[in-house]
Structures are given as structure tokens and as C-alpha cells.
Amino acid sequence: MQVYRLLTAVSAPIADMVLNRRLKRGPGACRALPERRGESSVARPEGPLVWLHGASVGEMLSALPLIDRIRARDITVLVTAGTVTAAELAKRRLPPGVIHQFAPIDLPQYVARFLTTGGPTSACL
């Protein structure tokens, strides 16, 4: 565990450089950048929240029936995506009221921010 923490701490500056380079790819990258750093683009709603992660298009598609069942119980669902393609699919196919954002990069400070944030913390201009 200590080796992992050391490696992630050392890789944080590299991750930031990679994320900043992605800004040049277009407007979608602007939204993804803060989310990849663990900053929520939507305020956390009151009440129960179920978090599902679809790393790929296939996982996102397979989660859709489960999302419908959870929403039928009046529970808010947060879906994170790991790829741009999965995020685009989520935008088109997720039912209204489901929160979608990119999953944070697996660095302790980004994951902690993602898990504890109470709402939007930044915006792209």
C-alpha cells in the first residue's frame, strides 16, 4: 500500500500535465478536466445516492436496466464514465435525473475530493 501511495504521489504532476494537454482536444475536454480531478459539476443531491461506474461503452449499456430499476425506487443515481465514448453514450441514453460525470483519476487527492465534494468547485471559461 505504501508503494502505491508513493507512486501515485509522484505521478500527480504527470497526470496534471496530461489533463492540461487534453484541453486542446475541444470543448468536451473542458468539462472533463475538473471532473477527472475529482471536482463535481453537479451539486450532490439530498437523500440516497447510488454510484455506478461504466468504464466502457459495454459496461455503460449493461448498467442501463439497473439504472431504470434504481430510479423507479426514487433514488438518485450518479454514473461515472472512464472513456469519452462511454460519456457520450451516457449523455444520449441516460434517463432524466441521472447525474453523469467522468470518474476521477486514481490519485488520492482527486478521489478524496470526489467523495467529499458537496457541489461544483470550478468551471471552464
Key terms for this structure?
alpha/beta; three-stranded parallel sheet; 5 helices; 3 strands; globular
Give your account of this protein's structure.
A 3-stranded parallel sheet has the order 1-2-3. The longest helix has 21 residues, at 2-22. α3 (57-72) runs parallel beside α4 (84-93). It is globular and about 45 Å long. With 125 residues, the protein is α/β, with parallel strands linked by helices. The chain has one domain. The chain is built from 5 helices and 3 strands; from the N terminus they run ααβαβαβα.
What is the fold's blueprint, element by element?
Blueprint: H1 2-22, H2 27-36, E1 49-54, H3 57-72, E2 76-81, H4 84-93, E3 99-102, H5 108-116
Parallel strand pairs: 1-2, 2-3
- What is the makeup of the main sheet? 3 strands, parallel
| Overall number of strands | 3
What portion of residues is helical? 40-55%
Order of helices and strands: HHEHEHEH
The count of helical stretches stands at 5
Mean pLDDT: 82
Percent range for β-strand residues: 5-15%
Terminal residue distance? 38 Å
Structural class: alpha/beta
Name the strands of the widest sheet in spatial order. 1-2-3
Tell me the domain tally. 1
Q: List segments where confidence is low: pLDDT < 50 over at least 5 consecutive residues.
A: 119-125
The global form is globular
Radius of gyration: 15 Å
Short summary of the structure?
It contains five helices and three strands.
